[in-house]
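Researcher: Re-running this chain for the archive, since the previous output was lost when a drive failed. Same request as before.
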Amino acid sequence: MSKDDKLPIREVPSHALLYFFLLTFAITWGIAGAYIFFPIQATGLFGELEGAHPLYFIATWGPGLAGFILVLFYGGSGGLSRFLSRLFLWRCHPLWWALVLVGLPLGFMTGSLIKGGPLIAPMEDGAGQFFVLSIIMLLLGPVEEFGWRGVAQPILQRHVAPIWAGAIIGVVWGVWHIPAFYLSGTVYADWNLPLFLVGCITLAVLVTPIFNASGGGLLLPVLFHWQLIIPFWPDAQPWDTWIFVAVTAVVIWLNRTHMVSSTGAETTVIPD
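Model: Regenerated structure tokens:
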């Protein structure tokens, strides 16, 4: 037994939410800021910040890394093991699985059709390249969920109703992305920032009842996030955002008892 194993496992306290946000922004905005304000020096030292660059991964992982740091600080390796066990909390009503696996793709496809686009994104480089890129995407954005849903969501739900916890995370999530709009070569460079912020808030609220229905599980939020960035789904802006706003409104209404009160809200970061 290691010395760390003998230490008591503490729950992550509510005030650690401030540390989580500070760490998240320090990691991501620190890297992005270097390339935005000192592009020549940053590129000269570290190379161009593109999709395969290690610093791009680290910047994208900011929320996840912040979450892991806090869990390790308060719970040690034992706490981290229990925290990761939340990946295996996946049991919930099949409709939530259907929303993640079928509903999200249908939202993108429908939005694309409305604007006269295809059902599936064009595969100029072949389906094999798309498959590889999809796996890479699984290792990028979804890692954020270990922070957003792993740490921030349960802490916020100790103090506010789930709908407001999701909305707060959505605002922070959207603001956290802002540097990407000023980095050349990113998909965000041509997007509408206000509409993107609406989308972030909407999706953060939409994933909230899924998170709570699975008992605070992380698998469904990870898959939810992955569906948002899989390259198979077509560019459906701005229609996909408005479709998801409508879907979220329906979900909130159908689950209003659990969304506007603490009933069924998960508040534990490190399970017993």
